[in-house]
């Protein structure tokens, strides 16, 4: 795909498709609930469709019409034995959360995924789930897909997260729903808490004290109505684009503003962007609102520690913003980026250096020297990673040459209407 250089600032207001994390969890909890759940604003990106597909293969009736989804839940033990292996495509969230659920079922399932998913570490969930009683077998001594999981009667555990991962936390909490006793997850650094919030919305009791989240086994969930807010991780591409492009002025409307996700807003503010946030309503327990940002003079900052889980998926686009800011930006404590859809440290460093940016990769982050105002066009590959693909597309605002993006289809994973929306804002 050829993306011509974009000279104009971003102007206008729009919303973005539904939140990916909430869409996945809505279907999963709905399948385990008694009764019907209706979901509005569901993200129809490929990852969330993988979740729907997986639950259909386990006998759950799910009707989808555009962004409206109806799930006919069958209760905690209603999943059926699948008659064939389940393909989870590119979706790490589906795989890890599903492993937590399947660990507590009385069945045997085989899971596999695409090339990228097949090299992403799964032992981060199979280790605690094995401790709870489930058994796994898979590639590379059970570390990788394809994986088979045999559910068992589970025992509660107390587990301190060795990586700051909401997926791992969620997998254990979901398994905890099936376990005898109280499962406790200790997260030294707060990660996104959509699972906890949604579990409560479905009628479960989840308690948080300090950094410990506790869930009792043998709970019952009840079907509900859910509205999914716009995905801040998708909106972030345009928020960042507008902040770095002079004279831009945009409002992203109806976006999820859960504080465990808003790191990108804080970072843009710290870099000097004029950015305002208005919480307009709550959908269930999730704050939702509008974000207004103007093109601004930006400067480099350090992004590390507790910042990281609050903006983990936004780091590629933040790195591009840093290339336009004055001074140096240092990103640390983000080794997790190496285990995403691709090694995002390597992908960002290679791509931005080919565009002419002074950028250095480190073990757990990158150092970007700013104010490379004119990037080099040419041919760039998405590494089949949606967030790298969108970063490359946004770079068309900072160049005088066309950009050819190869493997752009992966953007459908999280943001199927990305190019239409981008063209509308940057006419
Ligand atoms: C997600 C959590 C994050 C994030 C991913 C979605 C989730 O992964 O990168 O895109 O929905 O729980 P980790 O929890 O592994 O960091």
TrEMBL record:
Major subcellular location class: cytoplasm
Keywords: Amino-acid biosynthesis, Aromatic amino acid biosynthesis, Cytoplasm, Transferase
Cell compartment(s), UniProt: Cytoplasm
Superkingdom assignment: Bacteria
SUPFAM superfamilies (UniProt xref): EPT/RTPC-like (SSF55205)
NCBIfam families membership: aroA
Protein name: 3-phosphoshikimate 1-carboxyvinyltransferase
Lineage of source species: Bacteria, Bacillati, Bacillota, Bacilli, Bacillales
